[in-house]
Amino acid sequence: MSVNEAPTSLASAIYWAKLTAPDGAPSDIFGISVAASGDTAVVGAWSDDTLAGLNAGSAYVFVRFGTDWIEQAHLTAPHGASEDRFGAAVAVSGDTAVVGAYQHDTPAGLDAGSAYVFVRSGAVWTYQASLNASDGAAFDNFGGSVAVSDGTALVGAPLDDPGVGFDAGSAYVFGRSGTSWIEQAKLTAPDANSYDYFGDSVAVDEDTAVVVVVGQAIHELGIAPAFCAGERAAQVVGS
Predict the structure, then answer these.
(1) Which of 11, 89, 136, 137 has the greatest number of CB atoms lying within 10 Å of its CB?
(2) Residue 77: strand, helix, or coil
(3) pTM of the model as a whole
(4) The domain containing residue 113 runs over which residues?
(5) How many domains does the chain fold into?
(6) DSSP for residue 5
(7) CA 102/CA 140 separation, integer angstroms
Protein backbone atom coordinates (compact mmCIF):
# COMPACT_ATOMS: atom_id res chain seq x y z
CA MET A 1 0.00 0.00 0.00
CA SER A 2 1.37 3.42 -0.91
CA VAL A 3 1.10 6.39 1.43
CA ASN A 4 -1.45 7.91 -0.94
CA GLU A 5 -3.88 5.03 -0.59
CA ALA A 6 -6.45 5.13 2.18
CA PRO A 7 -6.25 2.16 4.57
CA THR A 8 -9.16 -0.27 4.21
CA SER A 9 -9.22 -1.28 7.88
CA LEU A 10 -7.62 -0.44 11.18
CA ALA A 11 -5.55 -3.61 10.86
CA SER A 12 -3.83 -2.10 7.82
CA ALA A 13 -3.82 1.50 9.04
CA ILE A 14 -0.73 3.60 8.44
CA TYR A 15 0.38 7.02 9.60
CA TRP A 16 -1.59 9.59 7.64
CA ALA A 17 -1.10 13.08 8.98
CA LYS A 18 -0.09 15.18 11.97
CA LEU A 19 -2.67 17.73 13.04
CA THR A 20 -1.56 20.92 14.75
CA ALA A 21 -3.32 24.15 15.66
CA PRO A 22 -2.37 26.91 13.20
CA ASP A 23 -2.49 29.43 16.04
CA GLY A 24 -1.26 27.09 18.74
CA ALA A 25 0.67 28.31 21.75
CA PRO A 26 2.57 26.70 24.64
CA SER A 27 0.33 24.93 27.17
CA ASP A 28 -2.78 24.92 24.94
CA ILE A 29 -2.93 21.13 25.44
CA PHE A 30 -4.09 20.65 21.86
CA GLY A 31 -5.10 17.01 21.54
CA ILE A 32 -6.54 16.57 25.05
CA SER A 33 -9.62 15.15 23.29
CA VAL A 34 -10.24 13.90 19.76
CA ALA A 35 -13.13 12.59 17.70
CA ALA A 36 -13.69 11.67 14.07
CA SER A 37 -16.59 10.98 11.73
CA GLY A 38 -15.92 10.16 8.10
CA ASP A 39 -13.54 12.78 6.72
CA THR A 40 -14.00 15.14 9.67
CA ALA A 41 -11.90 15.29 12.83
CA VAL A 42 -12.37 17.47 15.91
CA VAL A 43 -9.52 18.16 18.33
CA GLY A 44 -9.87 19.83 21.71
CA ALA A 45 -7.43 22.33 23.22
CA TRP A 46 -8.85 22.87 26.69
CA SER A 47 -6.14 25.28 27.88
CA ASP A 48 -6.24 27.56 24.85
CA ASP A 49 -6.37 31.21 25.87
CA THR A 50 -9.15 32.86 23.88
CA LEU A 51 -10.84 36.23 23.97
CA ALA A 52 -13.00 34.76 26.74
CA GLY A 53 -10.00 34.41 29.04
CA LEU A 54 -7.16 32.18 30.20
CA ASN A 55 -7.77 28.46 29.76
CA ALA A 56 -11.20 29.16 28.30
CA GLY A 57 -10.42 26.47 25.73
CA SER A 58 -11.30 25.79 22.12
CA ALA A 59 -11.70 23.01 19.57
CA TYR A 60 -10.49 22.68 15.99
CA VAL A 61 -12.26 21.02 13.08
CA PHE A 62 -10.20 19.43 10.31
CA VAL A 63 -11.44 17.89 7.09
CA ARG A 64 -9.71 15.55 4.69
CA PHE A 65 -9.15 16.51 1.06
CA GLY A 66 -7.40 13.73 -0.75
CA THR A 67 -4.30 13.05 1.32
CA ASP A 68 -4.38 16.37 3.17
CA TRP A 69 -6.15 17.44 6.37
CA ILE A 70 -7.14 21.10 6.39
CA GLU A 71 -8.45 23.20 9.27
CA GLN A 72 -12.08 24.06 8.58
CA ALA A 73 -13.10 25.82 11.78
CA HIS A 74 -11.92 27.00 15.18
CA LEU A 75 -14.74 26.54 17.68
CA THR A 76 -15.12 28.53 20.90
CA ALA A 77 -17.95 28.80 23.41
CA PRO A 78 -20.38 31.62 22.58
CA HIS A 79 -20.39 32.73 26.22
CA GLY A 80 -17.19 31.22 27.54
CA ALA A 81 -15.06 32.40 30.43
CA SER A 82 -11.65 31.82 31.96
CA GLU A 83 -11.01 28.27 33.17
CA ASP A 84 -14.07 26.85 31.41
CA ARG A 85 -11.94 24.09 29.81
CA PHE A 86 -14.03 24.11 26.64
CA GLY A 87 -12.63 21.27 24.53
CA ALA A 88 -12.05 18.90 27.43
CA ALA A 89 -14.34 16.50 25.59
CA VAL A 90 -15.36 16.49 21.93
CA ALA A 91 -17.63 14.39 19.73
CA VAL A 92 -18.72 14.56 16.10
CA SER A 93 -21.29 12.77 13.98
CA GLY A 94 -21.70 13.89 10.39
CA ASP A 95 -22.36 17.63 10.47
CA THR A 96 -22.92 17.86 14.23
CA ALA A 97 -20.23 18.41 16.85
CA VAL A 98 -20.57 18.56 20.63
CA VAL A 99 -17.92 20.14 22.85
CA GLY A 100 -17.82 19.91 26.63
CA ALA A 101 -16.78 22.68 29.03
CA TYR A 102 -16.98 20.95 32.39
CA GLN A 103 -15.78 23.92 34.45
CA HIS A 104 -18.20 26.44 32.98
CA ASP A 105 -20.08 28.35 35.67
CA THR A 106 -23.83 28.32 35.07
CA PRO A 107 -26.80 29.61 37.09
CA ALA A 108 -26.66 26.19 38.78
CA GLY A 109 -23.30 27.02 40.33
CA LEU A 110 -19.53 27.04 39.97
CA ASP A 111 -18.12 24.34 37.67
CA ALA A 112 -21.63 23.01 37.05
CA GLY A 113 -20.52 22.58 33.44
CA SER A 114 -22.02 22.90 29.97
CA ALA A 115 -21.81 21.32 26.55
CA TYR A 116 -22.20 23.11 23.24
CA VAL A 117 -23.63 21.90 19.94
CA PHE A 118 -22.29 23.14 16.62
CA VAL A 119 -23.64 22.27 13.18
CA ARG A 120 -22.10 22.49 9.73
CA SER A 121 -23.72 23.84 6.60
CA GLY A 122 -21.42 23.54 3.63
CA ALA A 123 -18.05 24.39 5.12
CA VAL A 124 -19.35 26.73 7.82
CA TRP A 125 -19.80 25.69 11.45
CA THR A 126 -22.25 27.61 13.63
CA TYR A 127 -23.32 27.35 17.23
CA GLN A 128 -26.74 25.71 17.64
CA ALA A 129 -27.40 25.11 21.32
CA SER A 130 -26.06 24.93 24.86
CA LEU A 131 -26.76 21.76 26.81
CA ASN A 132 -27.18 21.90 30.57
CA ALA A 133 -28.49 19.48 33.16
CA SER A 134 -32.05 20.26 34.26
CA ASP A 135 -31.04 19.50 37.85
CA GLY A 136 -27.44 20.69 37.63
CA ALA A 137 -25.49 21.84 40.66
CA ALA A 138 -22.12 23.32 41.48
CA PHE A 139 -19.11 21.09 40.76
CA ASP A 140 -21.11 18.47 38.82
CA ASN A 141 -18.60 18.77 35.95
CA PHE A 142 -21.35 18.27 33.38
CA GLY A 143 -19.58 18.16 30.02
CA GLY A 144 -16.64 16.16 31.30
CA SER A 145 -17.49 13.65 28.58
CA VAL A 146 -19.65 13.93 25.48
CA ALA A 147 -20.89 11.73 22.66
CA VAL A 148 -23.21 12.25 19.71
CA SER A 149 -24.95 10.04 17.16
CA ASP A 150 -27.16 11.72 14.59
CA GLY A 151 -29.74 13.63 16.66
CA THR A 152 -28.85 12.17 20.05
CA ALA A 153 -26.25 13.57 22.43
CA LEU A 154 -24.98 12.03 25.66
CA VAL A 155 -23.22 14.17 28.27
CA GLY A 156 -21.48 12.89 31.38
CA ALA A 157 -21.51 14.61 34.77
CA PRO A 158 -19.09 12.43 36.75
CA LEU A 159 -19.22 14.53 39.92
CA ASP A 160 -23.00 14.74 40.13
CA ASP A 161 -24.55 13.73 43.46
CA PRO A 162 -27.70 11.92 42.24
CA GLY A 163 -29.04 11.09 45.68
CA VAL A 164 -27.28 7.75 46.00
CA GLY A 165 -23.84 9.01 46.96
CA PHE A 166 -21.32 11.82 46.77
CA ASP A 167 -19.75 12.08 43.28
CA ALA A 168 -21.60 8.95 42.19
CA GLY A 169 -22.06 10.60 38.80
CA SER A 170 -24.68 10.59 36.07
CA ALA A 171 -25.17 11.08 32.35
CA TYR A 172 -27.84 12.97 30.42
CA VAL A 173 -29.47 12.14 27.10
CA PHE A 174 -30.56 14.95 24.78
CA GLY A 175 -32.54 14.67 21.58
CA ARG A 176 -32.68 17.17 18.74
CA SER A 177 -36.00 18.58 17.62
CA GLY A 178 -35.48 21.01 14.78
CA THR A 179 -32.78 23.33 16.06
CA SER A 180 -33.57 22.68 19.72
CA TRP A 181 -32.10 20.03 21.99
CA ILE A 182 -34.34 18.56 24.68
CA GLU A 183 -33.24 16.57 27.70
CA GLN A 184 -34.80 13.11 27.33
CA ALA A 185 -33.36 11.14 30.23
CA LYS A 186 -30.96 11.14 33.15
CA LEU A 187 -28.94 7.95 33.47
CA THR A 188 -27.51 6.67 36.75
CA ALA A 189 -25.94 3.37 37.69
CA PRO A 190 -28.38 0.87 39.22
CA ASP A 191 -25.71 -0.09 41.75
CA ALA A 192 -24.33 3.41 42.30
CA ASN A 193 -22.02 4.30 45.17
CA SER A 194 -20.14 7.39 46.24
CA TYR A 195 -17.06 8.18 44.14
CA ASP A 196 -18.11 5.94 41.26
CA TYR A 197 -17.71 8.86 38.82
CA PHE A 198 -20.37 7.37 36.54
CA GLY A 199 -20.21 9.44 33.36
CA ASP A 200 -16.42 9.78 33.30
CA SER A 201 -16.63 8.50 29.72
CA VAL A 202 -19.67 8.06 27.49
CA ALA A 203 -20.56 6.70 24.07
CA VAL A 204 -23.77 6.53 22.06
CA ASP A 205 -24.76 4.86 18.81
CA GLU A 206 -28.35 5.20 17.68
CA ASP A 207 -30.44 3.73 20.53
CA THR A 208 -27.60 2.36 22.66
CA ALA A 209 -25.53 4.26 25.22
CA VAL A 210 -22.48 3.11 27.19
CA VAL A 211 -21.40 4.94 30.35
CA VAL A 212 -18.16 4.18 32.19
CA VAL A 213 -17.98 3.86 35.97
CA VAL A 214 -14.40 4.64 36.95
CA GLY A 215 -14.75 3.49 40.54
CA GLN A 216 -13.56 4.69 43.91
CA ALA A 217 -10.39 2.64 44.20
CA ILE A 218 -8.76 4.04 41.08
CA HIS A 219 -8.99 7.64 42.22
CA GLU A 220 -7.98 6.97 45.80
CA LEU A 221 -4.93 4.93 44.81
CA GLY A 222 -4.03 7.06 41.82
CA ILE A 223 -3.71 4.03 39.55
CA ALA A 224 -4.34 4.33 35.83
CA PRO A 225 -7.70 2.79 34.87
CA ALA A 226 -6.05 0.72 32.14
CA PHE A 227 -4.32 -1.29 34.83
CA CYS A 228 -7.39 -1.68 37.05
CA ALA A 229 -9.83 -3.61 34.93
CA GLY A 230 -11.47 -4.99 38.05
CA GLU A 231 -12.32 -1.48 39.23
CA ARG A 232 -13.64 -0.16 35.93
CA ALA A 233 -17.01 -1.13 34.58
CA ALA A 234 -19.37 -0.04 31.84
CA GLN A 235 -23.13 0.34 32.09
CA VAL A 236 -25.00 -0.32 28.86
CA VAL A 237 -28.38 1.26 28.28
CA GLY A 238 -30.38 0.42 25.19
CA SER A 239 -33.90 0.47 23.87
Answers:
(1) 89
(2) coil
(3) 0.86
(4) 26-238
(5) 1
(6) S
(7) 8
